[in-house]
User: What shape does this take?
Amino acid sequence: MSKDQNQPEATALIELARALTQSRPEMEPTLREIEALVETALNRAAPIEVELGFEQAARRLRTAWLKSVAAETARVLRSPTERETKRLERNRHDAYGYERDFQPESLEARCEAFFGPAPPGWAAAHVMFSSGQAALATLLLHLGETRPGKLKVAHVGAYFETSELAARACAPARTSAEADCIIVEPVACDGRFTSHDPSELARRLTDGQTLVVDETLSAPVTQLPRILGEPIAGGAAVIRLVSGLKLLQQGLELANVGIASVFARDAELAASLTEGLKRCRTLTGAGLRFVDALALEAPFFLDRGATQTYAESVFAHNAALAKAVTVRNRLFKPLGGAELTGSAAPYCAFELATGNSAEALEALACRIEDEAKARGLLIERGGSFGFRGHRFEVIEPETGEPSFLRVALGARDDHSCAGLIDLMAELARGGPARCPAVRGR
Assistant: This one.
């Protein structure tokens, strides 16, 4: 790729550095360093060297921000003195008397601008946790408090840790009608992407039921406006869950965070749920630590425009990968609609059409690794998704579902992104003709 083609990523990294420096002026030397690293990267001849330079700049920026945050939080005890608490109250940060009871009110206030206001007739509130699973666990704990026996839960989705959490804490409901709580993943993946319609479940809610909509795979895209437009019972509640680590932090992974957004037509019900979640958050220690809250003060976190642009790039690149693989595909099982439309698939999941096993997928992963190296493409082994660069891994589900290969193209529209799409398409057709010998595991 030419220097001009790499310019968007170069500009994005410098803009991120400038935004962080505006929040923490002590990072001015880091801004100068990022500008120098980016310029050096742009002047490299080999595309992979340019991308490695960008990776170095992004990692350096992340490190400097977290070091600055840690230096500030190191001056305050987990159980601060009265003097320290008063000092916190005088600055822009949320103060606390005991860290387990830390209330990230300034971050939660930013959620309304990010997610948008509640529709007319609905009360809403946003509560932050140390992760998406911490949010779900706290919610199940609170909902089960007033139920006789165990909370009855129906899970319409595929995330294995959600299933395990519900199984440990609750009783399975045979149908959504008999459930106290229904957890639905509009887009779910267990090696195959599937879609579920939360609106249909919302229409059937009765008083006392709670619908939990886990939109981690599709955030910041949301189905909430359509869901809340349904004629939902006044005594029912809808709660959206999002893991804020994946697509909401420009690929820098500054801090793990889960966000629960509470909606109810009854304002008292919404307030009761919100306060109950906050109290359980304190009791279990499931909230953000002070250092995490300061890390998430990065101005691009919960910035709707920046997040939308970033996520759209991730979705588009993985949709392009899926579409390319389907052309004369002989290697993989057919892909589903979520991958092909690009609307809600931040990665691609591949199972072999014949002989699918962890061993066969690992051999394929080694082939991808070798061929990428031969072509000068940058892709790293690793989990999760939503990064600036590109990752892949073989996943062996603990719950017995078939193993699959996950390829998670990132937001960077670079030489490697295009090259990896071409490589995977060639493999799907039965190539490439030039391929190094496959290594053993």
User: Anything to note?
Assistant: The longest strand covers residues 123-129. The domain at 305-429 is CATH 3.90.1150.10 (Aspartate Aminotransferase, domain 1). The chain has three domains: 3-75, 100-295, 305-429. Residues 47-73 form the longest helix (27 residues).
